[in-house]
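Worked example 3 (structure in, sequence out).
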């Protein structure tokens, strides 16, 4: 009887620990794109310059810095990464060519590429 109670208690603690580790990032959360040295964004998936130009945009990273973005969807990959889709809060396009971008959200926050408001 003791072992059954012990296993039930252990299982309850394990399940509660798993739920406690869930991310606090939700759809609709707002962030600000931070200034990164030499425009080397590792976790924000900006399109390559040639794709921006082909779609009629201007590859100007100075306009991106300090922009407010909103999370529109979040997906969890098999390896545990949370990948979010973001758009500009002003409803405009990134580089005048792309409406949405993909972001490895936890890593971008940890590397100060995004800052929560």
């Amino acid at each position: 009887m003791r072992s059954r109670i012990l296993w039930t208690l252990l299982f309850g603690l394990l399940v509660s620990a798993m739920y406690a580790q869930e991310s606090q990032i939700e759809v609709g959360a707002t962030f600000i794109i931070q200034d990164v040295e030499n425009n080397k964004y590792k976790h924000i998936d900006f399109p390559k310059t040639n794709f921006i130009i082909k779609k009629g945009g201007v590859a100007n990273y100075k306009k991106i810095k300090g922009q407010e973005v909103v999370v529109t969807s979040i997906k969890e990959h098999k390896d545990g990464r949370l990948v979010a889709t973001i758009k500009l809060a002003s409803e405009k396009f990134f580089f005048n060519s792309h409406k949405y971008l993909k972001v490895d959200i936890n890593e971008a926050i940890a590397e100060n590429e995004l800052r929560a408001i």
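Notes: The longest strand covers residues 68-76. The chain has a mean pLDDT of 88.
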